[in-house]
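Hey, I was hoping to borrow your eyes for a little while. A protein chain has come my way and I'm curious about its shape. Take your time with it, there's no hurry, and the full record follows here:
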Amino acid sequence: MSSSQVLLLAHETSDLTSMAEPLERAGLFVDCISDVGRLSSIPVEQFPDVLVLEWQMISPLDAPRVFTPYKALKTGILAILAPQDLAAYDFTQSADDFMVAPISAAELLVRLRQLLWKTRGIDNQQALRRGDLVIDKDRYEVRLEGRRVFLTFKEYQLLELLASNPGRVYTRETLLSQVWGYDYFGGTRTVDVHIRRLRSKIEDADNTFIETVRNVGYRFRPES
């Protein structure tokens, strides 16, 4: 579950907000917002895998409209109810599961794992995490600082190979044979072109992942 993105919608001083730190220690990407209006302004490519929210922050009349885009993209929705909410809670109002406060980090993690399995059919354990970069080997997805990065399949294959062995230097010939195959007749310049495109998508002034080893090839920057 280590590459999954979780969005917490909660009051700034609530118990749910305090769950962010233990969830991050468990390997999740966690964002917190306290404004319901922001849910409708999040770009589709940044939708979380699971939305956890304090149920009292959503009007019952607004719930179906607010949640429809998230449900369409298989975002799991977990509602946190106060004990007094139980009598009036309508399970048809788009939440996939609920918990009753006070909540524990241990139970919340189990609930999140269950939701990921139900909504996406995965138990996402096959992920590489390199700083702010996460490579989800189950879904062939890449996220940088929680944002989805869209790569071609060859770019993804190159990144996964390099990131699986940080510090190991790969010659252009080795990358060509392992990613394109021995039957590929293109030259090693193909590798350089794809590495350049890959860098343009995952690197910026704050993130440098792939290093050029002069006259040899490339390596994924080892963790310090």
